[in-house]
Write a structure and sequence with these properties.
It is built from nine helices and ten strands. By secondary structure, the chain is an alpha+beta fold. Strands 4, 5, 6, 7, 8 and 10 form a six-stranded mixed beta sheet that branches. Strands 2-1-3-9 form a four-stranded antiparallel beta sheet. The longest helix is centred in the C-terminal third of the chain and has 16 residues, at 205-220. The radius of gyration is 22 Å and the shape is elongated.
C-alpha cells in the first residue's frame, strides 16, 4: 500500500466518523491556494458550517478545506494533493472538539497538574489533549501550549488513549487576553475565598500546592502583558480550585505577592481577582 493511499484511507475513515479531514504537505503545512484563490481573491471559505463564497473544488484555504464528504476527498481535484501528502490533518472545531497542543515536557507537566484528564495522543515532541466542545483557537497561551479548535487544524496521529471529557473552563480562560470590566466591588486580599460547597476533586493537598506554585511561576516569568497574564492566571486557579473551598488567604496572598513583584498594584490584583470570580460566577 502506498503512502498516498494510506493517507487517503485515514482521511476517509475520519470523514466517516464525522471528523473533517484534509491532506498536509511536508512540514505539516496545508497546501497552498490555487491561482483563483491566491491571496483569498475568491473571498475564502469563512467556516465549516455555512457555505462560503468560494466554490473552488481544490484543497484551498487550509483548515477550511477539511471535509467529511468522501466524494470530495476522493475527487480528481484532490488527487495531486494526496500523491504529495506527508500527513493527514483534521479540523477539531468542525468535529466539536478542542485540542490542547502540549509541545514539551514542561507543558505536559503543567497540564497534568492543572487540567482534568481526557483523551491524550502522543506527538513528536509532546501530547495532544482532546476535549469535547469548541472554542476560539489561539497559539502560545503559555509556554509550549497552543489551543486548536475553531478555524484551525491539527495533525491526525491516531485515536489516542483515555476517555474524552468536556472542555473545562480552565482551558477556555487561557484564550482570554484582557480582563472583563468589574461588575462588583473588589475583594480584599485579607478575606479568605470560600468555595461553593462542591465536591473537592483534589487527590492530595500536593495537587493544590503544585497548582499555586505553577501559577506563581507563570506570573513571575511573564515578560510582557503582565496585567493580562495575572488575570488569566487568577482565572485558571479559580477555575480549578475555586469551587470546593480549598483556597485560603495564604494561597491568595502568594499569588498577589507574585503579581506585585512584577509591578502590579494591590488594586490591580484585587480587580483582577474579582473579575475572575465574577466571570466564573463564584
Amino acid at each position: 500500500m502506498s503512502i498516498t493511499t494510506t493517507h487517503l484511507r485515514s482521511a476517509l475513515e475520519l470523514a466517516a466518523a464525522g471528523i473533517p479531514a484534509l491532506p498536509l504537505r511536508a512540514g505539516k503545512a496545508p497546501f497552498g491556494n490555487c491561482h483563483t484563490c491566491a491571496k483569498n481573491a475568491c473571498g475564502g471559505r469563512p467556516n465549516m458550517k455555512t457555505p462560503g463564497p468560494c466554490t473552488c473544488p481544490g484543497v484551498c484555504h487550509a483548515w477550511a478545506a477539511a471535509t467529511t464528504d468522501p466524494h470530495v476527498l476522493n475527487s480528481p481535484h484532490w488527487e495531486a494533493a494526496w500523491r504529495q501528502a506527508a500527513a493527514v490533518a483534521y479540523h477539531p472545531g468542525g468535529a466539536g472538539l478542542t485540542v490542547v497542543d502540549l509541545d514539551n515536557a514542561a507543558a505536559i507537566a503543567w497540564a497534568r497538574a492543572t487540567l482534568p484528564a481526557t483523551r491524550t495522543v502522543a506527538t513528536t515532541r509532546g501530547e495532544h489533549w482532546i476535549y469535547r466542545g469548541t472554542m476560539q483557537s489561539v497559539n502560545a497561551v503559555r509556554p509550549g501550549v497552543d489551543i486548536k479548535s475553531l478555524m484551525a487544524y491539527a495533525r491526525w496521529l491516531g485515536t489516542g488513549n483515555g476517555s474524552m471529557t468536556p472542555l473545562p473552563d480552565t482551558v477556555r480562560t487561557l484564550a482570554l487576553t484582557q480582563p472583563p470590566t468589574a461588575r462588583r466591588a473588589p475583594q480584599a486580599v485579607s478575606a479568605p475565598l470560600r468555595g461553593q460547597g462542591g465536591v473537592c476533586p483534589h487527590r492530595t493537598p500536593t495537587f493544590l500546592d503544585r497548582g499555586i506554585a505553577m501559577a506563581e511561576q507563570r506570573i513571575t516569568k511573564a515578560s510582557s502583558a503582565v496585567h493580562a497574564t495575572v488575570y488569566r492566571t487568577f482565572l485558571a486557579v479559580l477555575s480549578t480550585h475555586g469551587r470546593c473551598g480549598c483556597l485560603t488567604d495564604t494561597h491568595v496572598a502568594r499569588l498577589f505577592t507574585a503579581a506585585q513583584a512584577k509591578g502590579e498594584t494591590v488594586r490591580h490584583c484585587t480587580d483582577a481577582w474579582t473579575n475572575a470570580l465574577t466571570t466564573l460566577g463564584l
